[in-house]
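User: My notes are a mess, but here's the protein and dodecyl-COA's SMILES. Can you give me a structure?
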Amino acid sequence: MTAAFQDFYPDEFSHCYGCGSQNPQGHHLKSYWDGEETIARFTPDAKYSGGVPEHVYGGMVASLLDCHGTASAAAFTYRALNREMGDGGDPVRFVTASLKVDFLKPTPMGVELVVRGKLRSIDGRKVWVDLSLTGNDGICAKGEMLAIRLRT
Ligand SMILES: CCCCCCCCCCCC(=O)SCCNC(=O)CCNC(=O)[C@H](O)C(C)(C)COP(=O)(O)OP(=O)(O)OC[C@H]1O[C@@H](n2cnc3c(N)ncnc32)[C@H](O)[C@@H]1OP(=O)(O)O
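Assistant: No problem, the inputs look usable. Here's the predicted complex:
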């Protein structure tokens, strides 16, 4: 089975509510390569409803873009450096500095959501990632992230 990007986060940095393996209450989002892009799949529990039970609330949508975006920034950087995650070198870790979300239409509840990341550019410690979240009937939200690589 292919390891997810988050599987390479050290345990001490794996407490994120959205994607940390060490947070028992968290969502444990998992991100992977899909060609030149990145992908994550997630089906929110019914308790994450928006104004009506059929729709997912916006914070959950932003959370999925957030965690997938930073994981993708790390993956894009490893690839640009011709490195592999878990190669024993200095770990490449990112946090979100800026996340813009456009909610294009309601996100449906009860279906698997697909989150995609595409590299826009890398400039030193700054990585811009274009994000999208798709339900069963097209793109529901788009995101633009600036992720900053932490100094090691
Ligand atoms: C713990 C391990 C987890 C590692 C494992 C990952 C866990 C999962 C994370 C999930 C995603 C999240 O929720 S992360 C949690 C939410 N995010 C945060 O809490 C981050 C809080 N902010 C910060 O800690 C800081 O502001 C940083 C690290 C982002 C940046 O601080 P810094 O390292 O001192 O760098 P700084 O010089 O200020 O900025 C570097 C460059 O980025 C630019 N820059 C900085 N912020 C912005 C911004 N909002 N919009 C535009 N540009 C910006 C600066 O102008 C500069 O450009 P130039 O002058 O170089 O051109």
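Residues 128 and 146 are 5 Å apart (CA to CA).
User: Great, I'll file this with my notes.
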